[in-house]
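Structure in, sequence out. Go:
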């Protein structure tokens, strides 16, 4: 791509009356240069088994050819037609609750032979129709693909074969590694392998979920192989990964191994949804963007984000602009809304698009138009922003799954809560970071690596982390790290297993805190801000310096936070969940000592600063005000002198003081 993509999903099939030409004229007026079509409408494209009708698709493509609007074609495989479910009832996914009824999307078994037959046929038919249109710039494989809990008999048998291959048929080693002697779960022949749907063995349950994630990777790779046969050199292949959901995009997706699945793509894509109005913080835009950028260590596409969305997300004036440029600041090369128009029926009636139900120009459309003009004018400066971060957070699908099985007492704190606890603390202090996974080998690219709750991992991962610190890095691990091996079998070594030596500390007991605070290094925080939350490990130093003890009459001799010199580097262990105020102070002190603290970190949330280098080799700096109040910040000399202000929305720079209006921002070329 040589320009920023700005657009939306468009469904001519959903429109209440014919208005394609008017819609495209409105899009062009708004600066929209790309639409995504076709992924949602299999039943329109194949109304009967073997009967095809791509007239809606070709009508839109022909119009886009005339109007010079780019198109991304989605393979329409995530929502199956009713006739297919009627003809092959066992295509419907069987999960822990049984066979799912037809009606919703994404309720099929992605491994089913008949489903695959029909998928390949519709993809090939569609590709034959669209391959010669010059406006088609890329293809999206499926849509927010996951395994949908598939656990039918054929999936169970495939899992057994997967395990047998891993163990080369050695059933004794398998029984040992998974601890299957417990409660007589042992198997003495592969034919005895029971359904995993009812297992009480967390090791087996976690392995099955890992296998289910591998089905997603295989499915997307399989679709890529078909699309590849029709692909031109100037076209890309993408997919719109989504994330764990907590009323909005939130954390690591439990049902997809994003790094593995992204190998099917030439450019990673994502769907990012987030709170708005007074709850708009930019955290989800930043976290999900950093995660997607880190998949291929390159720029990515925002394929879906909200224009209006839920009623409670109807944005304040100026927020759409702030959000759009925030995506670019994380390295996105596109911003695309779901969707162009608000749908007039079915379950997403109140998930509103750019246009409301009257399909007329409105305040949202007018702000979209302003963004479109800015994107067009600044595309050469803002596209392909490259980011080099010296801090990283290591995440793991396997740790996430294991902590779902073995929850922190009370069930209040999840794996993603711990990841976001660390990430949000960095974000609010303008410490930019990458998201890395446990198979990352180039750890020396970073000065600081944070490891939140890495509950389950092979010993080789902890050896690499220990070596990273010994070579001069700063390693920061939290509670629930190193507890089990890759089979979710508790390690017999002192905890945190694999890291106790480099941490210079260990524990063998843990508890749920009641009226426990922190003493020692308290950073001048209040008593409420020093309260320990949800979980604590009773750590004993073995050479480490104790930065914080537990403030409790029975637990006061135990360490809550330790620091240890290891080789040329430093290791920190955080043994409990602290308040957000405390973790911010602690991470600030760690980052300062690691040499990553500068003027940007002196300016804290709600003013967010992001930087990168554009394709011309110039530094681009974004300064955002994520609040409904005016913010005024003092800038040092090196920041108050810029070569060019590229874009400003409610920003005033006088001498060394920058004033940002509510939800305002400025983009500078440094």
């Amino acid at each position: 791509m040589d320009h920023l993509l700005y657009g939306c999903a468009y469904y001519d099939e959903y429109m209440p009356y014919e208005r394609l030409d008017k819609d495209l004229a409105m899009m062009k007026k708004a600066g929209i240069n790309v639409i995504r079509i076709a992924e949602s409408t299999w039943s329109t494209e194949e109304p009967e088994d073997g009967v095809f009708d791509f007239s809606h698709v070709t009508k839109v493509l022909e119009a886009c050819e005339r109007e010079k609007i780019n198109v991304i074609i989605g393979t329409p495989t995530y929502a199956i037609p009713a006739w297919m479910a009627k003809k092959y009832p066992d295509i419907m996914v069987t999960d822990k609750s049984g066979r799912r009824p037809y009606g919703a999307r994404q309720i099929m078994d992605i491994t089913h032979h008949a489903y695959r037959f029909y998928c390949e046929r519709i993809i090939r038919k569609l590709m034959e129709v669209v391959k010669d249109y010059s406006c088609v710039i890329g293809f999206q494989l499926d849509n927010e693909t996951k395994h949908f809990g598939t656990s039918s008999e054929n999936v169970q048998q495939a899992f057994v074969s997967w395990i047998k291959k891993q163990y080369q048929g050695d059933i004794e080693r398998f029984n040992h590694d998974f601890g299957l002697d417990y409660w007589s779960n042992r198997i003495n022949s592969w034919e005895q392998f029971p359904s995993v749907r009812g297992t009480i063995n967390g090791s087996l349950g976690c392995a099955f979920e890992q296998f289910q994630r591998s089905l997603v990777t295989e499915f997307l790779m399989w679709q890529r192989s078909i699309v590849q046969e029709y692909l031109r050199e100037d076209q890309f292949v993408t997919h719109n990964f989504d994330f764990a959901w907590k009323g909005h995009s939130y954390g690591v997706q439990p049902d997809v191994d994003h790094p593995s699945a992204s190998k099917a793509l030439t450019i990673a894509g994502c769907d990012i949804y987030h709170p708005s109005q007074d709850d708009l913080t930019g955290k989800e835009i930043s976290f999900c963007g950093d995660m997607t950028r880190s998949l291929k260590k390159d720029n990515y596409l925002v394929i879906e984000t909200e224009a209006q969305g839920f009623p409670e997300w109807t944005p304040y004036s100026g927020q759409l602009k702030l959000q759009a440029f925030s995506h670019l600041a994380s390295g996105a090369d596109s911003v695309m809304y779901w969707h162009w128009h608000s749908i007039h029926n079915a379950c997403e009636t109140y998930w509103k698009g750019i246009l409301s139900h009257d399909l007329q120009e409105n305040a949202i459309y007018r702000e979209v138009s302003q963004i479109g003009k800015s994107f067009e004018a600044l595309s050469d400066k803002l596209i392909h922003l490259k980011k080099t971060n010296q801090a990283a957070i290591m995440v793991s699908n396997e740790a996430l799954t294991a902590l779902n099985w073995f929850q922190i007492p009370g069930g209040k704190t999840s794996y993603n809560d711990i990841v976001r606890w660390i990430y949000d603390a960095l974000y609010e202090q303008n410490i930019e970071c990458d998201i890395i996974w446990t198979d990352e080998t180039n750890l020396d690219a970073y000065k600081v690596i944070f490891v939140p709750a890495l509950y389950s991992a092979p010993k080789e991962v902890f050896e690499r982390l220990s070596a990273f610190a010994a070579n001069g890095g700063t390693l920061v691990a939290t509670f629930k790290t190193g507890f089990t091996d890759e089979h979710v079998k508790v390690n017999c070594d002192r905890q945190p297993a694999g890291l106790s030596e480099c941490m210079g500390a260990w524990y063998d007991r843990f508890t749920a805190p009641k009226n426990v605070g922190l003493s020692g290094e308290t950073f001048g925080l209040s008593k409420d801000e020093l309260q320990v939350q949800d979980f604590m490990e009773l750590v004993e130093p073995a050479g480490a310096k104790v930065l914080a003890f537990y403030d409790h009459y029975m637990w006061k001799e135990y360490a809550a936070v330790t620091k240890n010199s290891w080789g040329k580097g430093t290791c920190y262990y955080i043994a409990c969940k602290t308040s957000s105020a405390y973790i911010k102070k602690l991470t600030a002190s760690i980052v300062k000592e690691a040499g990553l603290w500068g003027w940007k970190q002196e300016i804290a949330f709600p003013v967010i600063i992001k930087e990168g280098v554009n394709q011309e080799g110039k530094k681009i700096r974004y300064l955002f005000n994520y609040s409904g109040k005016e913010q005024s910040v003092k800038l040092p000399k090196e920041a108050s002198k810029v070569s060019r202000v590229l874009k400003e929305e409610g920003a005033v720079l006088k001498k060394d003081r920058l004033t940002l209006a509510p939800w305002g921002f400025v983009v500078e070329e440094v």
